[in-house]
Amino acid sequence: MRMAPAIAALLLASSVHAEPSAWTMSPEGSEIAFTATFENAPARGVFRKFDVSLRIDPDKPAAGRLDVTIAVPTAEMGSDDIDETIRGAEWFDASRFPVAEFHAAEVRRVAPDRYVADGTLTIKGISKPLAVPFDWKPSGNGATITGDVAVDRSTYNIGTGEWRSTKQIGGEVQVRFTVRLRKVP
Amino acid sequence: MPTIPDHSPIDASAAVHAWPGTAKAFHWATALLVLAQLPLGWVAKLWPLSPLKLDLFVWHKSIGFTILLVVLLRAAYRSAAARPPWTAGMTPWQLATARSVHALLYGVLIAMPISGWVVSSASRVPFEIFWRIPVPAIAPHDKALEQIAARVHFSLFVALCVLLLLHIGAALWHHFAKRDETLVRMLPGRRSPS
To answer: pTM for this one?
Structure first.
């Protein structure tokens, strides 16, 4: 059977082609921001340090994965007093829980350039499932993913004791991200 | 439409040189707001960090913006409208003191909310007036500036307390010692001195 090696080679080639490509983050132009509410006024913040890696075959996303790690002590909300407060034990408890993570081993396509990563978000040592939708924009040998997702701070014990009340500091926090990716050669 | 006569029987100006109703309304609105605002600012500042402290500051800042608006409108009104004559029999130094204290009251009541606005802006703590109306920042995010503005705000508070003591003291002195119409003509709905 002389055809066998050829078929094997073809199969190998196609499986190599179907292998999801790996992408790493370019920090420049990448942002993970969040908006909480403070006495009904929007209170915006960013995480200065984070890392994102993605493995995806845009046409066969199921085998993809998305990994995000965030340096919690780098949260900045534009006010010294607030920045100091949110690192405290009642909020992020950033010294005990310096890393927030999101890991998804499943990605599904919901529209031509829109995907949802089904994974687990861990903040302050508490892990809960979270579906993170994102738009995928390829450009040259790079790509940009953007998306936003609402997170309920009470799920992760952010704001304990009397701060559980959502009257002054709202319960829902909107997380927005723009991540520039580079294909790993 | 016929105009309503200026000297209706219930108007105090028929009996004494009363202030017009608009002037009285401005005066007592300012008085109520300021008397609520002073202890409120004090309590908000000293209260330990808690949800209630955040609420107290929203009230304090919101009332501060209200005072700024009321006093600016009042200053515009006072510069346009006629005022009743000064109480008869005042000596030149009394007149000069009265004029100065009133001018300083206006100045402090405008400067104080603005210095508070600078503190709030420099701190970048999110704020909307009465939880509804966003206000622009009038200062950069700067801890040192915040502290300077806070010191100015406190100094103006001390100055305002002194001015209020002089103002209220003089009103009572006119009423009880001099027994003239100075206090009564600012009282709402009064026709003659008691």
So the answer is: 0.85
What is the interface size between A and B, counted as CB pairs within 8 Å?
Answer: 44
pLDDT at A16: 47
Q: Do B49 and A85 touch (CB under 8 A)?
A: yes
Rounded CA-CA distance A33/A38 in Å is 16
Residue holding tokens 């605002």?
Answer: B37
Q: Which residues of B touch A38 (CB under 8 A)?
A: 54, 125-126
Domain ranges of chain A: 20-183
Contact in structure between A134 and A114 (CB atoms under 8 Å): yes
CA dist A94 and B83 (Å) reads: 62
Helix spans in chain A (H): 3-18, 80-86
pLDDT digit string, tens, across residues B83-115: 999 998 899 999 999 999 999 999 999 999 999
- Ranges of each domain in chain B: 14-84+94-186
Cα atoms in the Cβ-side hemisphere of radius 13 Å centred on B140:
3
> How far is the C-alpha of B187 from the C-alpha of A32, rounded, in Å?
59
Report the topology of domain A20-183.
Lipocalin (2.40.128)
Q: Which of A39, A167, A168 is closest, CB to CB, to B127?
A: A39
Q: E-strand spans in chain A?
A: 21-38, 41-47, 50-56, 65-71, 75-76, 99-111, 114-123, 126-139, 142-152, 172-183
- DSSP code, position B149: H
Nearest CA distance, A33 vs chain B (angstrom)? 16
Residues of B with CB under 8 A from a CB of A: 49-51, 54-55, 58, 123-128, 131-132, 134, 141, 143
How far apart are the C-alpha atoms of B138 and B145, rounded to whole Å? 12
Q: Do B141 and A42 touch (CB under 8 A)?
A: no
Q: Would you state the structure tokens that stand for residue A45, as one six-digit string?
A: 């913040």
- Provide the residue type at B107 as one letter: G
Closest C-alpha to B13, from B181, B171, B185: B185
Q: Write out pLDDT tens, residues B47-72.
A: 999 999 999 999 999 999 999 999 99
Taking alpha carbons only, the member of A181, A153, A134 closest to residue A27 is: A181
The radius of gyration of chain B's CA atoms, rounded to the nearest angstrom, is 19
